[in-house]
Amino acid sequence: MKQTTLARELKFSGVGLHSGFRVTLGLVPAPPNTGIVFRRLDLNDFEIEALRRNVAKVNFATTLMKQGVMISTVEHIMSAVYGLGIDNLYICVDSLEIPILDGSAQPFVEAIREVGLENQNCRREYIHVLKPFHWSEKGKSICLEPYQGLRVTCVIDFPHPLIGVQKLDLLLDPGTYRQQICFARTFGFYRQVEALLKNNLIRGGSYDNAIVLSDDGIVNGKLRRPDEFVRHKALDLIGDIALLGKPLLGHVKAYRAGHAAHATFVGKFLQQTDAYQIAGLAPQLAT
């Protein structure tokens, strides 16, 4: 398989979910072996690689930081890029947070599909899971097992009449990501709004970019799918798994996990160098 990038540039504008700042975002084709790199246009094009080593905070969003320079709420754009199989890309922003748009990855996905991808003359490498690796803490767990493709199993459990226990199990490819995951919006509880605002969070939140839940229903609009909640958690999981830095071949099983759990798991998995191999699509496994 060849590496890919965008066929041409794309631009978006919107507001940061937590900062409330207006922001312009550009997706720019990048050369082979670049990976996914964020650029802060307002800080002399300072670059932050989309890798686990640059994860700084995971409080209601995934934030990257390098040499004191931050880029926040990267999970939705990373999910879109990873879900569509893009290897090399510059993500250029003029503020400290990615725009939330409608609270899902769908606006990114549909725009990327419209311009298309370009194959590059360089082989794609994958992270092949060689043996199971499991992590758990305080009722949350993530497991990664060998698998020929990328399979994602996500289970959530919320004490709310519209959520409860929901499970999603998918073999992921770009078509499945677009049809089954990318449209799912972030969600939150109305009773938590005041506390979140006091902690300088969701200052850009609105009824247009999140599902807002009352104690027994939805404050704004209707769900796009009855299980949109677990689909969004899978969207977040994919965006955080993307910080491995290369496409994964394995079965990810996440139970009641969130950004903090995802980041911890990815970091610990990368330390287990006997649990995976980086190679092309058909690696030469040691005997």
Question: What report would you give on this structure?
Answer:
- The chain is an alpha+beta fold and 287 residues long.
- The chain has helices at residues 75-83, 106-115, 174-180, 193-198, 228-241, 259-271, and strands at residues 2-6, 10-15, 22-29, 36-40, 46-49, 55-57, 63-66, 69-71, 89-93, 117-123, 126-129, 133-137, 140-145, 150-158, 164-172, 187-189, 211-213, 248-255, 276-279.
- It has a domain at 2-123: 2-Layer Sandwich (Ribosomal Protein S5, domain 2).
- The protein is 21% helix and 35% strand.
- The two termini are 25 Å apart.
In short:
The chain has 287 residues and is α+β, with helices and mostly antiparallel strands. The protein contains six helices and 19 strands. Strands 11, 12, 13, 14, 15, 18 and 19 form a seven-stranded mixed sheet that branches.
Cα separation of the termini: 25 Å
Q: What kind of sheet is the major sheet? A: 7 strands, mixed
Q: What is the tally of beta strands?
A: 19
Can you count the helices?
6
Structural class: alpha+beta
What proportion strand?
35-45%
User: What is the assigned CATH homologous superfamily of the domain at 2-123?
Assistant: lpxc deacetylase, domain 1
* CATH class membership of the domain at 2-123: Alpha Beta
Notable features of this structure?
6 helices; seven-stranded mixed sheet; Ribosomal Protein S5, domain 2; five-stranded mixed sheet; alpha+beta; 287 residues
